[in-house]
């Protein structure tokens, strides 16, 4: 990557562009953008395991659901403010991922994946059956929005509806979370995770505590998934057992792979693509699942490295072609 590309603050640029949605778009656009932002955070958190560490987790939805339930229960049942409920949701997901991850990282490859799925099914069973706390199959409807009256005193935000205010709050939290994960991946810790992904046996041979690093990555990914789940529970105005059911893990896995696991922004692009496609296809045909499946197959075959990977490869090819036809370069050759 060139020095210029390293200096481009992509997180800030995307944040500023997304911030214009409430002013330039309709209410539906704000709704869609909120869903995309939350799903992007969820997908990037999964890629901290899948793309960075090389761990395939089929149960990542467990921590997403735990974050949603902790935040929803605190805000609805106990009347806790959002500033307390959100950190509690992140902490609850972190503790759960620490406990589950302690057992999961002892296994490798398909056994790790299946064990992570088993733990997520345990969480789903608890959510579905513990009626007194989680509401059982009825869930927790009417989770309240956080009190955002303070935002009306900020210039340009005074006329926002509560959904627009929550979108802005969500965008800030997601941007900070993405920036934190970007820093983690670019740190020595993140580079060590990449080393473990490439060759865990060699990393272990040189004295690296592979299981310790994998567990730390597992906890970090679970924490950010919990934040995404907490935001989604408020956004959808309810928390239900379906949030921790295994198809949700498959959905976020598709988002991550579709966008490109080798690029930080790949899962976010995959989340936006899948959500927009889903909204568009369902508005045109009742056979939306068939059409959406065909579109996804075409995209995956067209971009085997994900959408961002395909775009990056195309851009690199154009640069090489331009360089090969540059008169100065040709003369030097």
Globally, the shape reads: globular
Strand-and-helix sequence, N→C? HHHHHHHHEHHHHEHHHHH
The tally of helices reads 17
Largest sheet: 2 strands, antiparallel
Query: Ends: how far apart?
Result: 24 Å
Helix content: over 70%
* Largest sheet, spatial ordering of strands: 1-2
- Low-confidence parts, pLDDT < 50 over ≥5 residues? 1-5
Q: CATH topology, what is it called? A: ABC transporter involved in vitamin B12 uptake, BtuC
Number of strands: 2
Strand percentage lies at under 5%
Rg on CA atoms, Å = 21 Å
Query: In the residues, how many domains can be counted?
Result: 1
Query: Which CATH architecture is right?
Result: Orthogonal Bundle
Structural class: mainly alpha
Mean of the pLDDT scores? 87
CATH class: Mainly Alpha
Please tell me about this protein's structure.
The chain is mainly alpha-helical. The protein has one domain (3-257): Orthogonal Bundle (ABC transporter involved in vitamin B12 uptake, BtuC). It is built from 17 helices and 2 strands. It has helices at 3-7, 10-19, 21-24, 27-53, 61-77, 82-104, 109-129, 131-134, 162-186, 188-198, 200-205, 210-235, 246-259, 266-282, 288-302, 306-325, 327-332, and strands at 140-141, 238-239. Helix 2 packs antiparallel against helix 9 and helix 5 (61-77) runs parallel beside helix 7. Residues 1-5 have low confidence and may be disordered.
